[in-house]
Write a structure and sequence with these properties.
The protein has 312 residues and is α/β, with parallel strands linked by helices. It has two domains: 208 residues, Alpha-Beta Complex (DHBP synthase), CATH 3.90.870.10; 77 residues, Threonylcarbamoyl-AMP synthase, C-terminal domain (Rossmann fold, 3-Layer(aba) Sandwich). It is 30% helix and 18% strand. It has an eleven-stranded mixed sheet, with helices on both faces. A four-stranded parallel sheet has the order 12-15-13-14, covered by helices on one side. Strand 10, helix 7 and strand 11 form a beta-alpha-beta unit. The protein is globular, with a radius of gyration of 19 Å. The relative contact order is 0.16. The chain binds adenosine monophosphate (AMP) and magnesium ion (MG).
Amino acid sequence: MTAIVPIQQGTLQLAAMHLRGGGLVAMPTETVYGLACNAANPDAVVRLYEAKGRPRFNPLIAHVASMEMAEQEAVFSPLAREIAAKFWPGPLTMVLPVASTGTVSDIARAGLDTIALRMPAHPGARALIETFGKPLVAPSANRSGHISPTTAQHVKEDLDGKVDLILDGGPCERGIESTIVSFVGEHPVLLRAGALETSVLNDALGGTLAVRGDEDGISAPGQLKSHYAPNARVRLDAEAPEPGEGWLAFGETPWPGLNLSETGDLREAAKTLFAALRTLDASHDRIAVAPVPNDGLGEAINDRLARAAHRD
Ligand code: AMP
Ligand code: MG
């Protein structure tokens, strides 16, 4: 049994002690709950991959609490530095060349000479990184391929007994993973749509953001087609539920079920998406999802829904 404890001075110290011993601690972030360990400790990182059942070719995001910590790990171009200053702390992950002073273990980077970095905005996550004093790698705190956790209880459902401690910071504010952009090549490339709207990022980049294509040779190793997946079959762009289907609505609807946002608010929909999928999954074998517009946060929501619906 893994304990769920509220974030306070004492529990932060306890969590940092587990981390120093090579343990695993689940922590809230503004995107989803993360499963954190000492990024510099290869044994801890291996334990983390095993706890999640995550394939080793899928590199982890290292979380930092300051620019000083970030610049020790990665090489920032002037543009990358400008973007970090604008969007950090926040739901943006930057893929950058590894610095010669970097401490993040090879295994966490899946052997790449690049590193994914993020400075989370959640005060609990920040406090944990600061208390520990070094970067923490933290993929989502769920079984690999399953629905991402947005509450401490979700973490327990997936990883009870496999992690040393779960820090409870309440439901996640954004509810969807970070946007990932690569600054490794000549132009910035979007690797994953996420909680920072692509258009906002592109505007800050003066319209130079490219979207990952198979031809550009930049790999995003973790972008598997089936991910965020419930056990239930998911049918997208449904006009109405069929008999036996759980109904996930968006906006006004005559059918009973759950609603991502009755007012059609994409921010609210992102925040409720994963919890709603978990709830419907517990009661239904099939889930029908209403169409969600593809603008703004809808891009990231539809990306997650498409992967939830994909069957290999
Ligand atoms: P997750 O922690 O599950 O949200 O996934 C992190 C994502 O970051 C993975 O899907 C990877 O595709 C991506 N990522 C991490 N490190 C790198 C890297 N060095 N280059 C490209 N993508 C990366
Ligand atoms: Mg994940």
